[in-house]
């Protein structure tokens, strides 16, 4: 058992959701992320029912992602806590609860179908919860795949401002890479292993890439004062300013950076992870959480020095014991701590703190504001229950008795 006593700096955490219409490729994207970050070593295939986030048997049987699972992985010095949100409309409550605990999300679209009805519903929910987003146009290898049409549907059907940061190289079966329009470099996947080779932009694509970069600069300049200044002075925006601007407008929810790839062919996932780290907010970038105490509203910032407040968003009855998945909003949770379950008004002991990594768990001695972990010990918490310091209670959400405890065989 590995104990990790040092909580990460808030800025290096990304609480990330993958949002999509059923069949757009959310499970495949999730699985590839876990594969590339080393969280799992064998690639699962959706049709075999072996992908790691779909570990519930009912889910495997139905072949769709029903129950959200939280999985931690590492990328470029950052911890990504991945919350798998259901894409099926029947599970809208679960989508809503998952969105509450996220700071940012990747919306996955099918490059042939573009925006589909359920993507619209989930998108509106994400708007309501102020979740910053990137868009990943998946299945670029499919016959009929077209990035520009998918981007138009993001603009028209979702009313979003897309900022297209990549240009595909080749189409359909011959989709082999992308031009990164921010760095003006070609990223090419020679095989299906997920690792790209970086090259200069090929001469034949240069004019189109420059035209698309100019369109990106122009769109960013409309949203960001410094980018506008540079654009007006030089007719272009520098890479450094462009990166800062893309991050700031994404965090503010003013625009959506669009990337593309083929999760199935393992193309586009590494740049997607880079964009998650570069552009999506950390827990330090989002507004303080609001709760109530005796009818009075209070705020708690993501401050490790503040009293503990955490929201239980998922409970699994696992063979190892009842696992309660928590988003910690403020304070530090230490193994052995006594916490107040505001749902039942009782204190309980946190016996173990687990970081869930795909199909295995790593025990940790402490977790802090901004983090997502599972705990063993609390017996009565349900999804929606607040766990907090007994000396400084706060209720984040009125608990509902309808929320299920999910059994995992
Ligand atoms: P989810 O319902 O959104 O979780 O979607 P899945 O990840 O289960 O994918 C739905 C189907 O699309 C599966 O048969 C996948 O193998 C397939 N798929 C996923 N990504 C791609 C892709 O990049 N290209 C193609 N052609 N098929 C894909």
From TrEMBL:
Catalyzes the GTP-dependent ribosomal translocation step during translation elongation. During this step, the ribosome changes from the pre-translocational (PRE) to the post-translocational (POST) state as the newly formed A-site-bound peptidyl-tRNA and P-site-bound deacylated tRNA move to the P and E sites, respectively. Catalyzes the coordinated movement of the two tRNA molecules, the mRNA and conformational changes in the ribosome. Keywords: Cytoplasm, Elongation factor, GTP-binding, Nucleotide-binding, Protein biosynthesis. GTP binds at residues 20-27, 84-88, 138-141. Transmembrane segments: none annotated. It is found in: Cytoplasm. This is Elongation factor G. The lineage of its organism: Bacteria, Bacillati, Actinomycetota, Actinomycetes, Kitasatosporales. One of its GO terms (molecular function) is translation elongation factor activity. Belongs to the TRAFAC class translation factor GTPase superfamily. Classic translation factor GTPase family. EF-G/EF-2 subfamily. The keyword Ribonucleoprotein does not apply. The keyword Ubl conjugation does not apply. Residues 11-284 form the Tr-type G domain. It comes from Streptomyces fuscus.
